[in-house]
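Quick review question:
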């Protein structure tokens, strides 16, 4: 695979009421620690391989395989490039209403961590159609798009995979969800506390009780989104830094290195990004 072919069409796309999709391209073999999975997700590895670790459990997903991930967990993720130097994967996230409306088969236990899938060409076609439906907002109606996302759930059900209905989010998850809506904002704890109808002192006390803080959640949410944008778009690093709340690209790079152990440029193989935002 040529580098230009892999980079072409990289994007992260959300369609309200339907879901989110992204095409991830990575130029170096890298390990990301403590990556949050907040929503049920399907990742289809097109090139290279992926290793997931959660405690003592480990899953290896090779090219042509997919992995279903349950929400509400943290994972260590290693994406390994091919001999040609590229890791590529597509992922899908469903809108909550689609998951809630999907019939529950009580004979299939709800997914708790991860399960590997080996999709045939028909299942792979369903994944491709679902991804297309998220992006084709003018050509495909929302009803058709939701139908295509449901089709992938049916294929998963045929392989004994069922996503659980999302439980009510815990306080730290609620904070993260609020932050994710506008990561470029200069957030203060008092603003989030007001959104959650509590005092700033109460917010900080409850977060401390579960071993975290407002500042820790904010930095981690920003770095997680930056990682996705580096993998799934051609935005220059300076633009990504600004979009996640950093006026200084050098300060952003320092934070990113502190969080993941390598520079943002490592994801793109030290290839200088020249694309402009629309």
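Suggested answer, residue by residue:
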């Amino acid at each position: 695979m040529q580098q230009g072919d892999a980079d072409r069409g990289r994007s992260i796309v959300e369609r309200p009421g339907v879901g989110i999709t992204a095409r991830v391209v990575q130029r170096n073999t890298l390990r990301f620690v403590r990556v949050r999975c907040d929503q049920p997700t399907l990742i289809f590895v097109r090139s290279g391989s992926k290793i997931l670790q959660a405690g003592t459990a480990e899953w290896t997903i090779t090219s042509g395989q997919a992995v279903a991930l349950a929400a509400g967990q943290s994972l260590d993720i290693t994406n390994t490039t091919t001999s040609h130097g590229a890791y590529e994967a597509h992922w899908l996230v469903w809108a909550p209403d689609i998951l809630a409306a999907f019939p529950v088969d009580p004979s299939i236990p709800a997914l708790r961590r991860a399960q590997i899938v080996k999709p045939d060409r028909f299942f792979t076609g369903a994944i491709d159609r679902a991804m297309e439906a998220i992006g084709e907002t003018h050509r495909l109606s929302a009803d058709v798009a939701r139908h295509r996302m449901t089709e992938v759930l049916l294929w998963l059900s045929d392989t004994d995979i069922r996503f659980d209905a999302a439980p009510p989010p815990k306080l730290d998850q609620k904070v993260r969800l609020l932050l994710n809506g506008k990561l470029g904002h200069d957030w203060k704890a008092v603003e989030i506390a007001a959104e959650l109808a509590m005092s700033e002192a109460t917010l900080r006390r409850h977060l401390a009780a579960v071993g975290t803080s407002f500042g820790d959640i904010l930095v981690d949410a920003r770095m997680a989104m930056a990682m996705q944008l580096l993998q799934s778009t051609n935005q220059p690093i300076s633009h990504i830094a600004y979009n996640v709340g950093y006026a200084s690209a050098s300060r952003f790079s320092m934070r990113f290195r502190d969080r993941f152990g390598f520079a943002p440029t490592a994801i793109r193989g030290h290839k200088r990004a020249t694309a402009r935002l629309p």
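Why it works: The first strand starts at residue 12 and ends at 15. DSSP finds ten helices and ten strands in the chain.
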